[in-house]
Fold this sequence. Notes:
By secondary structure, this protein is mainly beta. The chain has helices spanning 38-42, 78-83; strands at residues 2-11, 14-24, 48-54, 62-69, 87-91.
Amino acid sequence: MGLNLQGATCKKNKLQLSTTISTKLPVTLLRWISVYTRTDADKVVAGKVTLPVYLNATRSHLLFMLDFDTEGEGSGKDHSFYERGVAIISYDLG
């Protein structure tokens, strides 16, 4: 499975808003961190954004959500990333 980043670019492991429609991500390592309490999960952290990861480009099947560090224009402003529809889209390599 491969991953495309739509609406942003990834530089130095941080997301930046972009006019580029889609960027293929290199081999990517995802790490899950357990969230113990609901209140911890709801905290807004400056310089981070939570984005959806979809099964395919139709965006009809949400796989999970991931937190990313951000920088540049819109950094620390979740709404900028959401307004642009930034998301990770998986695709079949075969």
